[in-house]
Amino acid sequence: MEINAKTKTTCLFGHPVEHSFSPVIHNYLYRKYKENIIYECFDISKEDLKAAVESVRVLGIIGLNVTIPHKVEIMKYLDFLDIKSKLVGAVNTIKNEGGALKGYNTDGIGFVQSIFDIGYSIKGKKILILGAGGACRSISIELAVEGAKSIEIRNRSLDNANHIVETINSNFETKACCSKKEVDKNDLEGVDILINATPIGMKSDDCPIDKNISIDKAVLVCDIVYNPHNTSLIKWAKSQNIETMYGIDMLVNQGLAAFKIWTGINPTLEDKEILKNMYNCTI
User: What share of the chain in percent tops pLDDT 70?
Assistant: First the structure.
């Protein structure tokens, strides 16, 4: 694709962003579908978020993704929110419609699709989620939509977790609760799916659970961190011969959903596999 005076821009707002694989996803799709659009990353501090959002209108940026730590805070600067993003209470995708910014959330959709892609069901499952930020909000709501039996959220602060729990218990049959308790062996053997929805493992070899825990139950372990590919949590799961779901699966699926919002084009299953292979070639 040749960049010219008619080229439009989409981008990512977050902190940090240098690890992001999103430019590869979207620029591949733009080339394949001959869309005159490019995708860039912008490292935005919390203090600069309001000005950055205004720049979207000023510069005519047609769409953007939002990642940690701005998924909740950015909502106050938008003009419209779709129904699901209101329920979730977080936004990860924004479309600029003639200067009016509309927020969506594709995180939960991307996560659930990734579960389905590896042949797992969600209905009737007991789920433990680590973290209570924007990603947890989106994932929890989507899991409840799909009929999870129970969802427990573990987080150091219960303010956000309580809000998510109240939303689920008020709108779904799924039973939700939260606590500050450290994850132990009994916790892991009492659930069907463990999800790391924190950034722990992104910058270091830290693990969100005690790596010395050994379990006997077949639990699906999911990490939304995708760089590194094999996080400490994923390595722990493999050492226990436990099934895993990588962060890149969710990233690709939520990215395909965002691409459709911006362009109206529905990417193919082939696109998904190509993008996952492209990521695997970079690690």
Answer: 99
Q: Which residues are catalytic, by number?
A: 71
1 or 66, greater pLDDT: 66
Whose CA is closest to 283, among 254, 247, 259, 245?
A: 247
Instruction: Say if residues 208 and 142 touch (Cβ distance below 8 Å).
Output: no
Distance CA 111, CA 74 (A): 21
Q: Are 155 and 161 in contact (CB under 8 A)?
A: yes
Q: Going by DSSP bridges, is the β-strand pair 126-130/150-154 parallel, antiparallel, or unpaired?
A: parallel
Rg over alpha carbons for the chain, rounded to the nearest Å, is 19
What are the residues whose beta carbons fall under 8 Å from the beta carbon of 212, sequence distance 6 or more?
none
- Determine contact, residues 179/129, Cβ cutoff 8 Å: no
> Which residues, at least 6 apart from 267, have a Cβ–Cβ distance to it below 8 Å?
29, 256, 259, 260
Collapsing DSSP states into helix, strand and coil, what is residue 66? strand
* Structure-block tokens of residue 280: 């695997």
Closest CA to 14 of 61, 62, 64: 64
Per-residue model confidence as pLDDT tens digits over 117-174: 999 999 999 999 999 988 898 999 999 999 999 999 999 999 999 999 999 999 999 9
The token pair at 183 is 């994850």
- Residue in 219, 217, 275 with CA at minimum distance from that of residue 244: 219
Collapsed DSSP state (helix, strand, coil) of residue 14:
strand
Predicted model pTM: 0.85
Is the Cβ–Cβ distance between 274 and 31 less than 8 Å?
A: no
Phi, psi of 95 (to 5 degrees): -115, 130
Residue (of 85, 102, 84, 83) closest to 94 by Cα position: 102
- The neighbour count for residue 186, using CB atoms within 10 Å, is 9
